[in-house]
Amino acid sequence: MYIEAPELAAYPNLRHAFFTREGGVSEGIYASLNGGLGSSDDPAKVAENRRRMAEELEVAPNALVSVHQVHSADAVIVEGPWNGERPKADGMATSVPGIALGITTADCGPILFADPHVNVIGAAHAGWRGALTGVLEATIAAMETLGARRDKIVAVLGPTISQGAYEVGSDFVARFVETSPDNKRFFQPSERAGHAMFDLPGFIGMRLEAAGIGEFANLGLCTYVNEEHFFSYRRTTHRSEPDYGRLISAITLTPSYL
């Protein structure tokens, strides 16, 4: 049902999960653990799926908190479950025990953060746009306002589309190279003229390491190629399917250890 990272599992004051698509109640293209509030799946089934995830994390169902992700560079501080609409952002940070920060993805990079020594956690949704414009750095900065120390932060990248499955056009490449010529190293030639294969996990790792965090780890799992375990927006697009499920990656502070 979910995957754990040793880098985070080593700390008793943390619980986390990179949930797969298995273990839920959704059907068809959403089968089965679809956590996407913005999908066209039956809302009751999504709610039950998220309840199951919250149960695994040992938090209340409404304490599995997600933002309205918009591919931005914005990160928010979470003090409790939302009242009303979810804020538009792509990063979160909290120091409140029992709140699970949940990121939804289906090819983009889900990153879970923690400074376990001062009980501050974070989570970020990093597609190419968010990674390029600074959502990772914004999430780290939000954690620092709560007392996290940058050089003590552990960050783990969960299931993400791999370079071999991520073909982009020349305009895409130009946008990255204009930002920094060094970004050329994240592209390899494609079989199609005028296209290239983009290494999103590598780019995310570079940005996090450049930010000066203490430890970065990549689970090395591709959403596109592993249909049994992961949803993929790009795979759905290639098949002309009407919608797709969303994976949840979440982290929480465990009250009993604080």
Explain this structure to me?
It is built from seven helices and 14 strands. With 258 residues, the chain is an alpha+beta fold. It has a single domain, classed as CNF1/YfiH-like putative cysteine hydrolases (4-Layer Sandwich). The chain has a six-stranded mixed beta sheet with strand order 4-5-8-7-9-13. A five-stranded mixed beta sheet has the order 1-2-14-6-3. It is globular, with a radius of gyration of 17 Å.
Instruction: State the major sheet.
Output: 6 strands, mixed
Number of helices: 7
Helix content: 10-25%
Termini separation comes to 27 Å
What attributes characterize this protein structure?
globular; 258 residues; 24% helix; single chain; CNF1/YfiH-like putative cysteine hydrolases
List the helices and strands and how they pair.
Layout: E1 2-3, H1 6-9, E2 14-19, H2 43-57, E3 64-65, E4 75-77, E5 91-94, E6 100-105, E7 109-115, E8 120-126, H3 128-133, H4 135-145, E9 154-157, E10 167-169, H5 170-179, E11 187-189, E12 195-198, H6 200-210, E13 215-218, H7 233-238, E14 247-253
Parallel strand pairs: 3-6, 4-5, 9-13
Antiparallel strand pairs: 1-2, 2-14, 5-8, 6-14, 7-8, 7-9, 10-12, 11-12
